Amino acid sequence: MWGDTATVGAILGRGCPVDCRDYDGRTALFVAAVNGQADTARQLLAAGADPNARNSFGSCPLLEACLSGHEAIADILLEAGALLNQPEVEEAALLSTVIHSGDHALLRRLLRAHANPAAADYDGRTPLHVAARRGDLASLQVIAAAEDDPAVVALPAVQWDAPDRAGVTADTEASRAGHAAVAAFLRQRIQAARAAAASAPAQMQPAGGAGAAAGFGSGGTAGGVPGGFAMRFGRAPSAVGGPRPAVRTGSGSLQVRLLSGLAPRRPPPLAGAGSSPLSESAGSEEGGGDGGDGSGSGEA
To answer: Which parts of this chain are annotated as the region Disordered (predicted)?
Structure first.
């Protein structure tokens, strides 16, 4: 399109669907988002383009605008109701990868687009754990600034004291790694968050909003679609379908056996129950080829 709004208007005027897709499932709005074409993006949205369209890799125009460095496009999409639409595990991987790369500008853009800083991976580790382990005070300050910025109105609550599956919090991670300044900063944020929670009205919604309680990520979509940063960071899309990982319980534990796309293994036949060769073969295959005892199943 190259930002030629007149040609785009003429094509739309001939009846071309505004959300028609290419071989990768991209709509014209994806192209405008990647290329930073603000006028074209507004034109497409005015013509009814879906701001939350997904391509074949699970990406969306808002994510593409953030990854391409186009804050103006991201703002246009946010005003149109765009969401990142990433499953929690994928969103945790995205933010953690950005922190690991040291790209604080991209981290700011993603947080302004309401990426979830409390998103946890399969081990319950959040982007805070990654920054703490690396001694990356700057990334933590970016997250804190986004939390304190009244303009970032829909940022999910930052869970500064969230434990991972082993019960380790980010401040403990920083202390173990010898990053005293990072640990001190995290403890200050924890104390401030607890003080704010203690003074908040009892009827306030739980941290993360109603979507979090319903099992949705910050994008407002249940897990069942692979994450959208896969091609940009060299990862294949995650498996689809199946239940989402369970949320943290009050004791801080994390149930991770029910990962997205991981179906429960069929139990081996009971001894003496007259199992058939077919059931024995199925049990052997599902058990990783070692007789179906589960040692090769890869379960958490």
So the answer is: 236-300
